């Protein structure tokens, strides 16, 4: 069987770590965001067409840029980000407009300090990163023409007005659908579980997947790497949204409580499905046949739940109950499968009925978590990144240094298009080379495609009225595609920019605008890639070793927590937390591996291959540990054996991380379940030792 792997998306990177996840994700289309942007931006453009007052265009542009800063989520952090951008953006435009008349000797030092601060703001999270990026755009636009103090005051006031207008619309839209982001995120988790179940069904009926040779192992490794990574990322994204939503309200509302229950049920279902995948990989044909009915009915049930959660609509409980009854395994089925199937069906029922164990919503630590103090939120990331080993600090310094020649071009070659060079250079550069390379490809490709479309549209627009009217559908399309992929977003946004420039700079043809934008985008992309390659890069092999060591440590803690849970010596919540930490560590390892595979030098190629083997082995180990969680509690006579294996696993994984010799296995403690995990640990240790990973080099 030939293993075919499709290209991944940003939400679902896929199993092939060497392929860039640039495929469009159509589930990211957001018509509401597009309509909001159209009202915020195009309405003011149309008003300017009627009143013919140029400052209105500044207000329209400010509203447009403010929409860029809105990444969704609970309303309070969203409004903080939007108001911060509106306030700083107005000040930047007015101040740099006045300074521009005094020449580069004054402007350049101040601009470089601002660019450093804006690019370093990513240490405080995605909202701060987004605001910082768009503030760089404001700075570059402000340097297009000098302003008097009176003009600067007008520009600042109109910018504030545009930002407040966009923030007001955000508040209005949020009031209409305050829980939509959380519902969409949790629905995405259940949709990911549906895809995981559908792929399990495919593998369970594929004869090649039953092979214990390379082909069979490869398909199961691809399944684990592709689906577990995507579902875990979706769970963490939904967790962040739900926690932020809970913290933004004085009390836990009924709808927020339902969101917590559904998310916790989904995470527990995810753990059981990991165990089921490990079971099916080694199942006999008869055991796979027993699971066929469950695997046939489970994906559509999960898809129905996903759709109902996303749309905030009730579930047809009778339909779900009929499907659950049909999916129940036969009484004479394998006991291990019956236990897993029962837990799967229980979690699906909880997700549908929103009822279950009283501690379900709180067992994962989701409910009632207090917000961290603001000093910790602000100062801790700052302290952690004020070191040269920080990728974020190097990125900010790199962006600042490369911005010097780009800004110099703006001064020496003034015009309405040169700011695109600095904007492209700064926004294309990312902390890691692989991310910069991907961003450059998507930005250049999207700009060329969107520019051609925009030029054709502007060519057939015979009057400013038609150009202004085009802003409405182009704004809707551009912002609605924001979540599809970065390349698609740029391709849909560029026609709006071309038409806007054609409207405000009527002396230039649409093809000239497209040509200049393409020129500066390609040039800026090349400069960004070269800067990431040459200026203080942090190559991934070293970071892969760190991520691998963390993954080994978290899996050791997971093994200890599972054994403690089964022996009654530890709470269920501890095992859930350890499972989550192990999954996140594997995701971080795979992200580092993916970046390493995109690097041109491919340093330490053999070690990267060994780390990929280790990643697959850790995924298998997590599957075996998940199965242990659903085994019957060990008898008193077996407890000593379990404790011995717990000590051995902790010591063996610690020795593997440090490159030391594995401790001897427990004598007289034979166990089929632990013997399989021990074989995986031995394979892991041998692979890493051959590649020279561990010990001092891994430290």
What does this structure look like?
- Pfam families: FUSC_2.
- Keywords: Cell membrane, Membrane, Transmembrane, Transmembrane helix.
- It is a multi-pass membrane protein.
- One of its GO terms (cellular component) is plasma membrane.
- The protein has 699 residues and is mostly helical.
- The protein folds into three domains: 293 residues, no CATH class; 174 residues; 157 residues.
Percent range for helical residues? Answer: over 70%
Question: How many distinct folded domains?
Answer: 3
Q: What integer value in Å does the Rg equal?
A: 28 Å
Number of helices: 25
Give the low-pLDDT segments: 355-368, 695-699
Shape field: globular
SS class: mainly alpha
Count of individual beta strands:
0
> Strand count, sense and closure of the main sheet?
none
Query: How much beta, percentage-wise?
Result: under 5%
End-to-end Cα distance: 41 Å
N-to-C order of helices and strands: HHHHHHHHHHHHHHHHHHHHHHHHH
